[in-house]
Amino acid sequence: MTIIPEKYSHKEIFKKRKDIKFTPAEYKVFIANVLNVLMKRGKYGLYLTAYDDALRHRLLELNSQS
Q1: Percentage of the chain exceeding pLDDT 90
Q2: Measuring CA to CA, which residue among 60, 30, 33, 31 is closest to residue 48?
Q3: Are 56 and 63 in contact (CB under 8 A)?
């Protein structure tokens, strides 16, 4: 999995924590942890959005095989 911090769009978690400053490496680890928690605690499942057309088609292909 490749994490691109610039594409991470859930900024709400930082609104009340102005004291948190991450290095780029720490930010990637943080995002990976957020995704890990979401995948393990999803009550109704996890929904993914693929912005890349090729990735979207591949995910749909893999989903139809299961």
Answers
A1: 8
A2: 60
A3: no
What are the residues whose beta carbons fall under 8 Å from the beta carbon of 39, sequence distance 6 or more? Answer: 46
Handedness of CA 43, 55, 27, 33 (dihedral sign): positive
Q: Report whether 28 contacts 7 (CB < 8 A).
A: no
Query: What pTM was estimated for this model as a whole?
Result: 0.56
The more confidently predicted of residues 46 and 54 is 54
Question: Structure tokens of 32?
Answer: 């990976």
Find out whether 27 and 5 touch, Cβ atoms under 8 Å: yes
User: What length does the chain have?
Assistant: 66
- Cα separation, 10 vs 33, in Å, equals 13
How far apart, in whole angstroms, are the C-alpha atoms of residue 66 and residue 49?
19
